Amino acid sequence: MIIEQYRIDEYNHINNKEHQRKAEFLRSEIANFDELVQKLIAFQIAIPSWALGTGGTRFARFSGGGEPRNLEEKMADIGLLHKLNQSSGAISLHIPWDIPEDYAAIRQLAAQYGLTFDAMNSNTFQDQPDQALSYKFGSMQHVDKAVRKQAVDHNIDVIRHGVELGSKSLTVWLSDGSCFPGQLNFRNAFQRTLESLEEVYAALPSDWKMFVEYKAFEPNFYSTTVGDWGQSYLYASKLGPQAYTLVDLGHHLPNANIEQIVSLLLMEGKLGGFHFNDSKYGDDDLTAGSLKPYQLFLIFSELVDGMDDRRMNHASDLGWMIDASHNVKDPLEDLLQSVEAIMIAYAQALLVDRAALAAAQEKNDVAGAQEILQQAFRTDVRPLVAEARLRSGGALSPLGLYRALGVRDELIKERGLKTVATGL
Ligand code: PSV
Ligand code: MN
User: Fold this and answer.
1) What atom of ligand 1 comes closest to residue 424's alpha carbon?
2) What residues contact residue 45 under an 8 Å CB cut-off, 6+ apart?
3) 276 lines ligand 1 (CB under 6 A)
4) pLDDT exceeds 90 at position 265
5) Coil, helix or strand for 271?
6) Given a cut of 70, is residue 380 above it in pLDDT?
7) Closest C-alpha among 258, 294, 229, 250 to residue 55
8) What does pTM read for this prediction?
9) What mean pLDDT, rounded, does the chain reach?
10) How many A from CA of 380 to the centre of ligand 1?
């Protein structure tokens, strides 16, 4: 399905009066309204190729209709999202879930939808049918050098695919670890993993980044070999200047202060990218901002502050991606909601009066500092975000138009009711 621009324009025309009323009020409140709109227009959030189908738990998967059956259809879905919100202009691929066969055709398709290729993701946490050796006891940490080599070769292969598509980064997430005390020698596991990562790092093109993603637990439940930001930072530091830590919001132990982690990683120049989602218990992979919007805002507040301190470009100097799963919602609706929540948190963070906050901190004015943060958080910035979309050709309400156009029904007509997306 293709959404023609005139349908968006028609929809915006009908809703414009109401929007202008709200935007005018906000413009009177925010001195640099137009500058913020430009920042929001530039900010793009990559969609992972594995998030377009219905996810599932280890108990069940309830597939929805019209799910994309191949990479081309996944790109078409992201094209729809981007057309509606103008903020999802990138795709992140997982190999081997989505191996591009004809690079030129895939590149052309991406250009047609206005998409770029974000980080490539390797997969050494599952065994593939044609795979010689098993990852049951880990990949890069494995006691058998041949298994480690297989994992290294796979990552180098993923880089090769990415180079063909114009990607500039590799995200390595390892499920390596142990399930029981005594199973693993921690130091050997670390050293072997480091050596394996060094081999992959040596194969990185000079303009690429490597993101080392950490996760506290799952699928291993006693130890994880890249278990937290400290361990990821250790690998990234030992590897060299092209290696960075990647923060996935769902990969911490409960109540971790993620905003502080982000702040310090930025200070050290070692924060590389982000996977957005929300959670109540563990790696729940729920819609960004659906449970803890204030936490998301606080994280963005540190991101904006830390990036400005280092004169970084908000839009391009870190990798921004959603990493969520959709068990009960239409994946496209869910992704539209996630992108909206991320844009709102970013916009609110841009509103924080940094000079006043710094002054309050220096005076130990605890209540004053809280007021400053909450003033930004409690501002309804939705008209600001909508204005950015309007100016870039997107829909005033992406979800509203998605429903009005009956996009899911159209996709079911095109693809059928019983399609199952690859990956996850
Ligand atoms: C692992 O939980 C993770 O967050 C990694 O980013 C994977 O690539 C992704 O989810 C899909 O399994
Ligand atoms: Mn992730």
Assistant:
1) 12
2) 87, 88, 90, 276, 320, 321, 322, 338, 339, 342, 343
3) no
4) yes
5) strand
6) yes
7) 250
8) 0.97
9) 97
10) 32
